[in-house]
Hints:
- The protein is mainly alpha-helical and 187 residues long.
- Helices cover 54% and strands 3% of the residues.
- Strands 1-2 form a two-stranded antiparallel ribbon.
- The longest helix is centred in the middle third of the chain and has 23 residues, at 65-87.
- The protein is globular, with a radius of gyration of 18 Å.
- Keywords: Isomerase.
- This is Maleylpyruvate isomerase N-terminal domain-containing protein.
Amino acid sequence: MSDTLExxxxxxxxxxxxxxxxxAAGAPARSLDWARRGTAYFARLLNDLSDAELDxxxxxxxxxxxxxxxxxxxxxxxxxxxxxxxxxxxxxxFPKDLTVGEDDVxxxxxxxxxxxxxxxxxxxxxxxxxxxxxxxAGWGASVEDVTGRRIAxxxxxxxxxxxxxxxxxxxxxxxRLADVPAALREL
Length: 187
């Protein structure tokens, strides 16, 4: 057994091999933790719902649980695509609005249950991969969308965390405010 946490991390990286991805040393560890814990929490609530229960109302007026799931999935997709845009060195503003559109949410809410669950899962995996592929310099970059809105990539984990925890409560599926990290409770 390793004597220190650093030795344990080094041993784990050695066992996992060169294909494993890790956060850059300068990544915003606290907000990444909030986002990853929020993802796991939301996923647990979602997995506990039957397909029929997805049609039930959420805590958001006029929106079903399907709407909440679609919004969360599309937000992760947008953030992941925007981070990739910057990481890949593409020119000009990101060619989309970084705010999830209501038309997308309405369309997403009509997806079959399996596709809706896949949207959430796939988009969160993609976003996490993009975060892990950012270098220290990448975390210092920002992205501008077609509306002129600029977001620092360093802020994306907290933006995501706040959305995840807020929407976990809105899912109306036994989420508890006491489970939300204290610093994020002003949802």
